Amino acid sequence: MWAGADQTRIADILADVLAQMLLPEFVYVRLFDRHEGPDTEAFRLVAGDGATLKHAIRGSADAWFRHETRLGSHSLTCSIDGRGLSVIALDLGTRGEFGFVFVGSGRPEFPTSAERLLVSVAASQALIAVQQHWLLQEQKDVATRLDGLVAQRSEELETASEALRRSESIMAHAESASLTGSFRWHPVTDTLEWSAQAHRLFGFEADRLITSDDFFDRVDPDDHGQLREAGAKASLDPIDLDLTFTVMPPGQEPRVLRLVAHPGTHVTEQGAYIGTMQDITERVRAESASRVAEARMRELRDELSHANRLATLGQFSAAISHDVRQPLSSVSANAMAGLNWLNASAPNLDSARRALERIVTGVKRAADILDRVKSFSRRNSPCISVDLNDLVSDTVALVDADARRRRILLSTDLAGDLPALQADRVQIQQVLMNLIVNALDAFDESSLDARKVNVPTWLDAEEIGVEVRDTGPGLSAMAIPRLFEAFNTTKAAGLGMGLSICRDIVADHHGRIWTDANEPSGAVFGFSFPTTERVE
Ligand code: ADP
């Protein structure tokens, strides 16, 4: 009877059942709304003015329902429409949360226990129906909410898919513009996912499933070793990959690719590598062309400066020979004359002596000319207070870029509290620069791994000094005796003047210059000045 009924129907059925079985003056059923909407009411009245009576019954029922001590089932007497009626009042639900039933009768024996039992049985059946109704409504609400959520999610999903499609298309454009393909690789399962551009770089058709065998088929066999080794390492530990290799797509020019990959960080990428492969063929070509051009430029520059030096030297020699020829020819003429005077049957010793004296004068003049030439080659600046450590730092800074280009580690070890040196700063720097450049040059012929030049300064009781220590091939025992002589060189573009000029400059400053072997290999060149007697 109750099944599937809504609240109005349940209230009606309950009111009808009670009215028919108990024949009371009135039955009043009130059911509450689930969501605090309007209540559902059912009245069954035997006689009287419907509206006034209903109003009176409703008032009594409200008074009862609001009473704090009410709960459960009650028999009470109410004055309704001027008559005292016996009433059964019954809550629906343990706290009346579903509504209540109000049944009144003028019969003196009302309510008998059987009548009370009847009301409570009918009410509890109605309560079950109401509860079922509420449950059904709840399920409908949940279903509606779910429908709403599903619709909302579908919409979000559609928006996300649209965004994904857009970013995929941007990505595809970016990939093709930058000649970069992207991929995902899982080293444990050895599965590969490639973008369309990655397929293109290898000359594969766009949707082909790529295996690692396919990959290696197209890679230059010379590069297999490094790729397999990196792959094996990457499958053991998460590492960053940065590899360059050549790929040979059939019917196309080989391409140089740079592969960069990192272990995935997202939970869905655990253990997988995400990376890119970029076509750097053009860049590699351009770099090697510029390297060749740079080397050629260097060669030309060296050749030019050598030619310059030779030309200068030629002019220089011409000037010297011009100036020296005159005293030399006078020396030679006087020597001949002297010999003649001595070889005569009666040797003329006075004339021979005068010839010898002229020879001495001629030789002195030649020596003066040479001294003038020498001082011209070393223009003197005034002696000033020089901080040797500053001088070393400045000079090292000048050649540091050159050292790095030659992959040589150039370092200093500066002693503390060095006294200032009174010297020609330009000339001392010329000495140091020459020694450092020689040390760097020493590595040109060498394939040694340790390529280091260290420049320490030092101070002891008598001297303040600096050394240039290299780990190059060192000096042969045969070379050492002539090392500081002019025109002694082993370099194709060398003049062999550097060390001889260094020696003169250091001597002018009352210092000393020396060389020694470095341990375990290489050469040491050093120079020092007395601390007591400063050069003025
Ligand atoms: P140049 O540098 O023009 O050859 P130098 O007088 O400066 O003239 O050097 C003479 C020679 O001494 C060099 O050609 C080289 O053979 C040798 N030499 C100089 N310094 C070193 C060094 N640190 N290691 C090995 N050889 C050196």
Please explain how this structure is put together.
By secondary structure, this protein is α+β, with helices and mostly antiparallel strands. It folds into 3 domains: 7-138, GAF domain (Beta-Lactamase, 2-Layer Sandwich); 177-279, 2-Layer Sandwich (Beta-Lactamase), CATH 3.30.450; 378-530, Heat Shock Protein 90, CATH 3.30.565. It has 11 helices and 17 strands. The chain has helices at 7-22, 50-66, 113-177, 196-202, 212-218, 221-236, 281-343, 349-377, 388-405, 425-441, 498-508; strands at 26-31, 40-45, 73-80, 83-92, 99-105, 180-186, 191-194, 241-247, 255-263, 273-279, 384-386, 409-413, 421-423, 452-459, 463-470, 512-517, 523-530. Helix 9 (388-405) packs parallel to helix 10 (425-441). The chain is rod-shaped. The protein binds adenosine-5'-diphosphate. Adenosine-5'-diphosphate binds next to helix 10 and helix 11.
Brief overview:
50% of the residues lie in helices and 21% in strands.
CATH architecture of the largest domain: 2-Layer Sandwich
Shape: rod-shaped
Number of domains: 3
Mean pLDDT: 87
Distance from N terminus to C terminus (CA atoms, Å) equals: 130 Å
* Rg of Cα set: 57 Å
> Given the helix and strand composition, which structural class is it?
alpha+beta
CATH class of the largest domain: Alpha Beta
CATH topology of the largest domain: Heat Shock Protein 90
Quaternary state of the chains: single chain
The bound ligands are: adenosine-5'-diphosphate
| Main sheet summary | 5 strands, antiparallel
Could you estimate the helical fraction of the residues in percent? Answer: 40-55%
